[in-house]
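Board notes (copied after class):
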Amino acid sequence: MSTSRVNPTKLRLASFVALITACTLACTFGIVPRSTFDATSTTPPTTVIHSPTVFSTIEVTESPTELESTPIPTTTTPETPSPTPIGASGAIIFHSGPTGEEDIYLLQLESTEPQALASYAGSDISPRWSPDRQEIVFVSSRDGDREIYLMDARGSGARNLTNNSAEDDAPAWTPDGEFIVFSSSRDGNREIYRMRKDGTNVKRLTSDLAFDIYPSVSPDGSLIAFASNRSGQTEIYLMNSEGGDILQLTDGYNEAKYPTWKPDSSALVFASNRTGDFELYLIDLLGGEPENITSNLAQDASPDFSPDGNLIVFDSNREGNYEIYYLDLVTLAVTRLTSTAELDGDPDWMP
């Protein structure tokens, strides 16, 4: 059986609403008894798709490192970073530094001076707040290959959650804060996995000859968005919290990556280079085509919503060097938050 290839039109509305309705409380993270998750899976779950072609190569790196080989637009006079986005609060974490030597930084939105949280040999990237703001999961190469680590919100007590010779990256929390979903090549190619936040009870959620990467769990816990090249090019897909009912959400959005949920679970933002450079797109899950919400000759990627859903933070090299920006979804105005000589990327807004 092949994966459904469905454009986000009104015709898709009925099937998507049916999918959400079918996700009962028994499938929602945080409501299922823990014993349901505590049995380590030894056999990959059956999915509704089988890729007819083996995709043997795909570059899986973290933004903005993967985009560094693309042309950078002519540098313009930098604007002064905004110390406090209108209507925003809290803090943003991101990675900064030369490629392969990035560290994790915290930017309080009342300030323009980032604070280093994790600084070790190797690369620390892709930080993600826990739902209760007390912990940060991230990816590090400090032990020689990419592994997933957990530390407290002050940057101390870092511990390795995945300890193997494969590449483990792209971590995302479940809304109850008990599980971490991530991508790994431990079984031969990139698949989506789930584990408890202490690294135990690892379960594979996808099983396909293609590459499944960049998972993102919906705020209500019922769905997981991810990127996959199972259709021949990388598109955005949805599946339920156990890896079933896979639905292709985008079609024709070449190299679509980094799906992130709006806080009310009604929409997704993602990046795509369908126009020749990476731009951000917003797709309403109730129907309609994705809306292009950034437009320039640079690379815009790694988006994340503010807690109120009105702003999107992202990284971009639109002024010559990768910096952190935010986009106002009402006015589509873009404001720069960082201004450093280092590469700043992959921001995550405090929930």
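Comment from the instructor: Residues 72 and 277 are 10 Å apart (CA to CA). The chain has one domain: 4-67+87-300.
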